[in-house]
Each structure stands twice: as C-alpha cells, then as structure tokens.
Design a protein that fits this description.
Shape: globular
Number of helices: 1
Order of helices and strands: HEEEEEEE
Helix content: 25-40%
Largest sheet: 4 strands, antiparallel
Length: 100
Amino acid sequence: MKIHAAFISCFAAALFVALPAAHARDKKVNFNLRNDTGVPLELKIGDKTETLKTEQVISVKLPVGTRITTNTATEHHAVGSVIAVVSDALPSDSTLAIGK
C-alpha cells in the first residue's frame, strides 16, 4: 500500500511539473529580427528556413522555446550557431539585431 501511495505521489508531482512547461510552449512572442551582419543570412527558425538580406527586418511570432540558428557561415557565426531561443521574457515588439 505504501508503494502505491508513493507511486501516486511521484506521478502527481511529475504531472504538476510538466503542465506549466507544456502551457509555456503554447505562448507566442512577437518580435523582430534584423540582419546587421553585412551579408545575406539564412536562418533556421524552428522548422522553417528564412533568408534575411543585409539590414532587412522581419516580424515573427514564435512559440516560447523556438530555436533560431544560422544556416549561413559568417565571420562571427558558424553554421548551426544558436542565435536565440525564444523566451517569454523577451519584450513584445522588440528587435533582435544579429550582428557581426
């Protein structure tokens, strides 16, 4: 009986820990990306690929936890470098400048 109660307690604790994380993924954040590298930059934004021309600004609305990585090697960024991971701490309508 004690094992059963311990199992139920552990399951409930794991469920309460997982629920906020699952809910956080549903939240989307609006912000802008700007290419300040001086060269066209191909980014992988989640599962999609987007090309930013030099000085181009794009508006995105992405779920919390989405990774933005580079598909283009530059002087300061290797292919696959993580540019950002979307967080709900990022102010809405802010601009993330990708620089040299």
